[in-house]
Amino acid sequence: MKLLSFIVLLSFLYCNGQSYTIQWFTMDNGLPQNSVKDIIKDKYGFIWLSMEGRVLRYDGSNFVQYKNFKLNNLSFGDFYGDVQKDSIAVFNNSEKNVLLISQRRPQIISQRKIFNQDFPKDNRIYKRFVKNNVTARYVSYIDSYFVQLKTGTYYFENNSIIYADQKSKQRIKIDDRFSRNRLKRLFVHGEAVFVADADRKKILQLYQGKYSYVEAPSIYTDPETKIYWQQSTDQVFMINHGKIYSSQFLNGKLTLTYVLEYNDIDKELSGAMFYDEDTRKLYIGSSINGLKILSLSDFSVSKKNLPYQDEVCYAALPYGGNSVLSQEGIRYYRNRSERLYKAPQSYDKRYIFQDDSGNLVYRENNSIHIRYKNTGFTKYDSITFEKKEITGLYKNGGMYMVSVSDRNKFYLYIFDRDNFNRVVKFIPSEGHIDSVLRYHKDILYLGGSNGISVISLSKNKIIERIGENLPVKQIIRTGDGNIWLTTYNQGIFLLKDHKVIRIPVDKNDFLANAHYILEDAHSNLWISSNNGLFKINKTQLLESLKRPGEPVPYYRYTKEHGFLNNEFNGSADPCANILDNVQFVFPSMEGFVFFNPQEVRTYFPKSQDIYLERAKVNGKMLDLKGHLFLEGGYKNAEVYIDIPYYADPENIYLQAKLIGGDESQWINIKNDKTFRLANIEPGKYNLMIRFLSSENGKFVYRSLPIEVEAYFYQTFTFKVLVAGFIILILIITIQLRTNFLRLKNKVLKNTLVHKDKELQETNNKLKSESDYQKKLIESISHDITTPVKFIALLSQELTQSEDIKTQKKYFDSIYKTSEQLYKFTLSLKKYTELYKQENATDDEYLIYDVIETKRLLFQEIAAQKNTFIYNFCDHHLTIRLNKNILLAVFHNIIDNAVKNTSDGEIVISTYSSDQGIEICIADTGSGMSAEQRTYYTELFQKKGNEHLIFKNYGLGLHMVIQLVLKINGKMTFHENKPKGTIIKIHIEYDQENINCR
């Protein structure tokens, strides 16, 4: 199987008034041969051609041929079967083998699976009769031709007709005077067989074994009429002198519908015909001339057809309701033209209008010509502007205007209605004037190469400029009041709130040179351009401004739809017209294009009409089953996108993107409908296809999973193994290098041992210094917090009190506390050495004095909380421990007691025994919980650094515990009933460096 992918329009043949175009395919431009035996369309929308040795599938763009069948006889003939049941058969000449076309593919089957043969089992030769055309031959060696229907079978044999009923198997002889040559005029509609009788001018009708003669239009029985009938397509055509009619049997009557006139049909119809109602295309297959496709057009092109004159058209006026009139005196109808008055061929065809009297006013060289209606436009006058060039002639908003240039200066003259000899206004312009629009009574828009100049007629000057540097070609106002601008090479713009908004162009940028816009009754905009005519719904176009980057669903009409030339003309006034019969007329480089916008069709594939089931990998065709697997190292792959679409594929915006790669942007698929895969990294991907399936701009999406196999060296496992091997090599290299360095370092180690010890000692000292600094900061900040906070609190109370006695009391408390705080700060220097000092001293001091110092510091603070501090220590008990350590310990414990006691008392007492002394601090405050008492008690059992990791109970007692441990003392924590806490500090006599008496 080979794929023939191409888009070929070999030639378009046009005649003035003809409403179809022709595509012609032969061996020179894509067909494998020129002989086409039969044509049919399957239920999926694909066209199938029967040929010698092969069958072809056509989707509107590409031919796919199937030919590699294991059959001895490959001379295929006519199609037979049921299209709706997806069962189309094509026999070879021997009718022993058959191709069944189903699910969009042909396959060989036995002919017994297709037909239930009920003809007699005898030695006679039977020939199935499924098609009738002008080249049919009914040879004598065939004993019986038969037509098989659902209800029964008709046998034409021995100059008679025999009917065999399908149910009863009864055989009925109908007519014994039926000659074989009458088969040329036989056709079938449904279950009724008809034979045109030219002699009787009637039609023989056979229905379920009965016959009758019925009336029919004369074309059926005209001897010059050629009949074409194909049973599988259920189509019958009557061809008479080039005119082609389609036959129908409705409500018991035969009727004809005119299709088109094709004068060469008599010479070319020698194979097959098929008319596609959906796409309005007539397919004609020839045994020698290939395939011709005649596409009916909704457009008509009218030309003047005069010798030695071109057909270039510009401005024209509506005339008579169904035609337009040019200044050359040519009246153009939809399918013909005529001359109303004689005038020389004009090279100045861009401006024309009718004045109030119906006279024609147009420009000719440097003059205004006025042809008078009452003379049949045969007489005219001229008005010349001396030494000035007329650049434009306009009638807009009831005003008559002419634009002129004078030595690179530009002016707009406004006349007194149709009195062209009297200028009522003279408006200078900054540049050439290309278009004029009267916005309202006082405002005039002048379009030119530098945008739009807004003119105030009352002020006679330019009051505003819009869209500077924009080369405006036409200014068009649609029925909703929107103003559109076409430009030279810069596209279309919308004028909104005195600002120009660029309208997205088509994907080929043909609308960069748009000419003019007409709006139909359904809000569709028809836009002429230098390359085709475009249609777009206005609402969709305005909505597209909110979705930048998304394609705008412009529908483009070209020569394929019936034009003689894709290039339309603008830069004229008027350059498009709407006639009274609602026809639109646009001028082109070859005649005026007429059409009714309500009748012009748009063609889109159905949402289900897309199939991703074929691919070619390394030159080999594959049938896809929902996914594509590509082996590692594939060279090239192509995925074929099968869409039965018989119009311009540019209009459906067929796009694709590969999801999973580095780039996932939509790309336009060319007309061969092929997506190519090359140099894709191994992995899993998803091919996404989309196309437009209606005018509403909605896309239909399809996807195809694709997996690219990896080479062994591209797999994850291989990469892991390689990475592991590299790491192993590095480890071995590092180990060898390490062993070498170890040996070398051993030599140096002895030299460095001494230095290492010194550095270690220095490090320990630094560490101890760091620990000391940390403990010092903790000690100072903790000891100074409460007095300072108390002074701050008293100061606040002092500011709020107006009582002199109370103020005096506060001043006295502040004084006493500050004095004690001052004395405390004098000893801060000693704090700096606290953790470095020795535990014992040579000087003895009274414990009572140490306690009294702290009592005096906190008594004012306690008094504020109605708490009393009692120093019941022995006045004669002395000790030689480091005084600063004890001061810090007592400071913290008394501070905590003051903080947690209100309306109570704090009692400090000492007890001595033979083993040592005990200092007891008891308060009646809120007290410590059992958990806290247990926690602090257990801290004494930890001798390492573990005790530096504290719970969130505060730093004060942790510091006290460290200092007590420093002097080798002990602390215990007890509950003071009914409330409060008792802290006891035990100091033994016989401890080293301690001397208590």
UniProtKB/TrEMBL annotation:
Assigned keywords, A-Z: Kinase, Membrane, Phosphoprotein, Signal, Transferase, Transmembrane, Transmembrane helix
Stored InterPro entries: HATPase_C_sf (IPR036890), HATPase_dom (IPR003594), His_kinase_dom (IPR005467), HisK_dim/P_sf (IPR036097), Ig-like_fold (IPR013783), WD40/YVTN_repeat-like_dom_sf (IPR015943)
Pfam families noted in UniProt: HATPase_c
Signal peptide residue numbers: 1-17
Span of domain Histidine kinase: 779-991
TM annotation in the entry: 711-736
Any one GO molecular function term: phosphorelay sensor kinase activity
Domain of life: Bacteria
Name of the featured protein: Signal transduction histidine kinase
